[in-house]
Specification:
The protein has five helices and ten strands, in the order αβββαβββααβαβββ. It has 342 residues and is an alpha/beta fold. It folds into two domains: 116 residues, no CATH class; 169 residues, Glutaredoxin, CATH 3.40.30. The strands form two sheets. A seven-stranded mixed beta sheet has the order 5-4-8-7-6-9-10, covered by helices on one side. A three-stranded parallel beta sheet has the order 1-2-3, with no helix packed on it. β7, α5 and β8 form a beta-alpha-beta unit. The longest helix is centred in the first third of the chain and has 26 residues. The N and C termini lie far apart (125 Å).
């Protein structure tokens, strides 16, 4: 009799252990009430059945209350395996980044509340941590952040400002310059055919000027071709130059008088008061001293633009360019009055 009791006892012990595991799997397939199913936003929470009971707590970043297989970053109170960062109340298998309160497959970023080995009914898939709209991303800025022409201003902003989001040169500037571009009818620049000044061959009358870009007193990059459809008056100056100062006193009044006729006056500083380099402070000093409110004051510290027009080695160097063509009408001839071309 003693020999038969021990095997019988062990057999009963193992049988109880197996039954426990089977019941957890069986309960995970319990019927789900259809009116409780609510898929989550964060990757859509799972739908399934489960019951609150006992189970193991499994997860990396979360809590599983009752679960056979707790998984990463989630919490399970129900059946099945826990999900990554999601929430399921009564789920078979939790998944990544959702939040489900119910049964079935859990979703992303939430916590699973179900039971692995329990016996109580199923919950509904919840929203969790709004995985779908939050961690799953969305597009920041949407189409409003698109900058088709690459000019640094979004298409939406350009449309609101009345500039062309497909034209790189057509954009707003802080000082409200008279922007008039040539659109798609861009000029074809000439090879400069004037005289050599030791550093460059200058443009001559009749040549077509290529675009150049320099930084203004507001710290913005300004393109010559932003004013392509205007008559442009370029004045290259040195801050120490008395004639340059005299010319600058008339600059804003000329701009005010002729702007409506298609005119843009542009000041370009090449040297400071000691014939040294120009900096941002000096650009602003020049703009403030002569009340240049709608006139760009540009930094040509290296003289790269200036040398394409300098013919007599004296300041100011005054250039007139034709509207719509960027053709040189006058170069370094001291012509201060644009009215004859307007």
């Amino acid at each position: 009799m003693r020999r038969s009791v021990v095997p019988l006892f062990l057999g009963l012990l193992f049988a109880c252990g197996d039954k426990d595991g089977d019941s957890g799997a069986k309960d995970a397939t319990s019927e789900v009430p259809t009116d409780d199913i609510d898929g989550g936003d964060g990757g859509d929470g799972g739908e399934g059945s489960g019951s609150e009971g006992t189970g193991t707590e499994g997860s990396d970043e979360g809590s599983d209350e009752g679960s056979d297989e707790g998984s990463d970053e989630g919490s399970d109170e129900g059946t099945g395996s826990g999900a990554d960062e999601g929430s399921d109340e009564g789920a078979d298998v939790g998944s990544d980044e959702g939040s489900d309160e119910g049964a079935g497959e859990g979703s992303d970023e939430g916590s699973d509340e179900g039971s692995g080995e329990g016996t109580d009914g199923a919950g509904d898939g919840g929203d969790g941590a709004d995985g779908g709209d939050g961690a799953d991303g969305g597009t920041t800025g949407g189409s409003g952040a698109t900058d088709t022409d690459g000019d640094g201003q979004t298409d939406a902003d350009e449309t609101a400002a009345g500039t062309d989001p497909l034209d790189y040169y057509d954009r707003t500037y802080s000082s409200a310059y008279n922007v008039q571009t040539c659109g798609t009818a861009l000029p074809t620049p000439s090879t400069p055919s004037g005289r050599s000044n030791g550093r460059a061959t200058t443009y001559a009358t009749g040549n077509i000027v290529a675009n150049f870009q320099l930084t203004d007193h507001n710290g913005e990059d300004v393109d010559l071709y932003s004013f392509c459809d205007n008559h442009v008056m370029l004045v290259f100056s040195a801050m120490w130059c008395g004639t340059c100062q005299s010319v600058a006193t008339q600059a804003q009044s000329k701009q005010n008088s002729y702007a409506s006729s298609g005119f843009q006056y542009i000041e370009v500083l090449v040297e400071d008061r000691t014939s040294g380099s120009i900096d941002a402070t000096e650009l602003n000093q020049w703009a403030t001293s002569y009340s240049l409110s709608t006139i760009p004051v540009l930094d040509d510290d290296l003289g790269n633009a200036h040398y394409l027009f300098e013919q007599n080695w004296s300041y100011p160097t005054i250039v007139h360019l034709g509207a719509g063509t960027m053709e040189v009408l006058s170069v370094d001839a001291g012509q201060q009055d644009p009215s004859g071309w307007l």
